[in-house]
Amino acid sequence: MSRQAVPITLSPEEDTTLATWGRSRTLPLRQVQRAQIVQLAAAGMDSQDIATALGVSRPTVQLWRQRFLALRVRGLEKDAPRPGRLAKITEQQVQAVLEATLHTTPPNATHWSTRTMAQAQGLSEATVRRIWQRHHLKPHLTKTFKWSRDKAFVEKLVDIVGLYVNPPDRALVLCVDEKSQIQALDRTQPGLPLKKGRCGTMTHDYKRNGTTTLCAALSMLDGNVIGDCMPRHRHQEFIRFLKKIDGETPADLVLHLIVDNSGTHKHPAVKRGLQRHPRLHLHVTPTASSWLNLVERWFRDLTDKRIRRDSFDSVPDLIATIEDYILQSNQNPHVFGWTASVERILAKIAKCKEALDALH
Fold it and tell me: Is residue 359 very low, low, confident or very high in pLDDT (cuts 50, 70, 90)?
């Protein structure tokens, strides 16, 4: 005597949903078939006939009839969870890898690799790699940092961020700095050009043809840059550059210049020159806080886009390249906007300091 399947009765909402799924052309095929199985079962068709009509096995029909009776429409959307393969690596082994990674170093090395850790723990390299990936560990990477010990750090931070986010009326904020010792390097041999399947090449050795120092002032208003290449990096060159800034900016605006705490910027001759030009005001960044001066961001673009991969046979050639980059940059200037508030910066610094104090 054959067993009779439990009848299925659909609510109006379920009937509408399953009808939509059953004729869908965008849903996965398995979800469409499940909806059709339940629809036919609700119409009174037995499991063997449903299996024949839809081209599936009878156990498949019985499975999804039972899933629908247990979970209704929600049960048709995804497969039931499967237990999967039993883990061969114990939790104790995982913890041993994590403990060794975080608190020890291998003999004659500063950090673990997947191979050395695998050998030390008696595991495969792939297993160590999976454990590190799961716990977001990257022993091969380090990041640099510098903690400012400036006693007036907060006051200087508030002053400079205030200039960025809320500049004074009838004033122009300029980020000023020197990129010193830019080398005119000439490669000893011509490199190979970029081609399909191969990156461009350049020799590892080079000939030094001298250096130049670029003084630059980045306008926070429109992104334009005032620049001048000079042979040396002294207070005399800085005074000369201040005069250039004074002559190339509107005379009716007060100039707020953000500079670092280099001795070049604090020389007595510079202070006397500022007294003769009362519209110029220097705002000094805290020690070890060059990230507060946005002209450093422009310097990075200059290095990455124009200097690092080029070759220069003389200092005048290097200077001409820098001046051309400034000219092209000013034709389509990029405004570097400041978005971080003082509170956000101080909170991040406090968090980093807390982490450092916990390690010592």
Answer: low
Examine residue 7 and state whether it is found in any structural domain, yes or no: no
CA distance 86 to 94: 15
Residues 72 and 95 in one domain: no
Is residue 105 scored above 50 in pLDDT?
yes
SS3 at position 212: strand
Q: At 219, list the tokens.
A: 């306008």
∠ CA 94-97-101, rounded to 5°: 140
200 Rama sector, left if φ>0, alpha if ψ -120 to 50, beta otherwise: beta
Pairing relation of β-strands 225-230 and 280-284? Answer: unpaired
Pairing between β-strand 225-230 and β-strand 171-187 as defined by DSSP bridges: unpaired
CA 198 to chain centre: 27
pLDDT of residue 1: 42
Domain that holds residue 106: 91-134
Same domain, yes or no, for 327 and 194? yes
What's residue 244's pLDDT?
95
CA gap 128, 143 in Å, rounded: 22
Q: What percent of the chain has pLDDT over 90?
A: 59
Spatial separation of the C-alpha atoms in residues 164 and 336, rounded to whole Å:
10
Residues 227 and 157 in one domain: yes
3-class secondary-structure state, position 171:
strand
* Residue-wise pLDDT tens digits, 263-319: 999 999 999 999 988 899 999 999 989 999 999 999 999 999 999 999 999 999 999
Domain total for the chain?
Answer: 3
